[in-house]
Design brief:
The chain has helices at about 5-25, 35-40, 75-90, 110-125, 135-145, 175-185; strands at about 60-70, 95-100, 130, 155, 165. By secondary structure, it is α/β, with parallel strands linked by helices. Strands 3-2-1-4-5 form a five-stranded mixed β-sheet, sandwiched between helices.
């Protein structure tokens, strides 16, 4: 392998590691975040095929707003775990995906290219949950609102739209207790 390719791969790996480190190091909890701060009422909810979906599909459920991208190694690790968790709990839990993906091959970046990368990622990991379209910069701005800086980030909201945690990924391994913990946290929110 050429020295340039080695440096490029190393740089990419380092960037992923730094984003992951930032995601785990940043623990600032927002005090006034609501579901509509991340998924505005005018944002169209879409299924994996791009078909418009009513927000009624989220009623009565905890919702995890998931920030992720196909280029992120830790995201590729967490996404199948989240899928398994969501599928096991789909009666009381749903995911809304916000992509931080972009197509590096197109200069300048285009919205169509970014949407194509997101669609490829969703199909590759069989993400049968909901999404909203946001441009790359707008998606990053939403991520910053969560108090986190890196991806993957899973922000949990109660069925009433109250903020529960910006570190939802830490609960995914314990399917049996996660929703119970979230209910307890949500009930203590005024």
């Amino acid at each position: 392998m050429s020295d340039t390719k080695t440096k490029t791969k190393f740089g990419f790996a380092l960037a992923c590691a730094l984003l992951t480190t930032a995601a785990f190091a940043e623990t600032k909890e927002p005090t006034d975040l609501s579901f509509t701060d991340l998924v505005a009422t005018d944002a169209q909810l879409l299924d994996v095929n791009g078909t418009k979906v009513s927000r009624d599909a989220l009623k009565g459920k905890f919702v995890g707003v998931y920030f992720s991208a196909s280029w992120c190694g830790p995201c590729r690790y967490v996404t199948p775990i989240l899928k398994k968790f969501r599928d096991a709990n789909n009666e009381g839990f749903e995911v809304v995906f916000i992509s931080i993906d972009y197509d590096k091959t197109i200069k300048p970046r285009t919205e169509q290219g970014n949407l194509a990368k997101k669609q490829q990622y969703m199909e590759a990991y069989n993400m049968n949950w909901y999404t909203i379209h946001r441009r790359y910069g707008a998606a990053l701005a939403l991520l910053r609102k969560t108090g986190r800086r890196g991806i993957p980030t899973l922000v949990i909201f109660s069925p009433e739209g109250k903020y529960v945690t910006n570190n939802g990924t830490r609960y995914l391994k314990d399917v049996e207790t996660a929703i119970g913990v979230w209910k307890t946290k949500a009930s203590s929110i005024k």
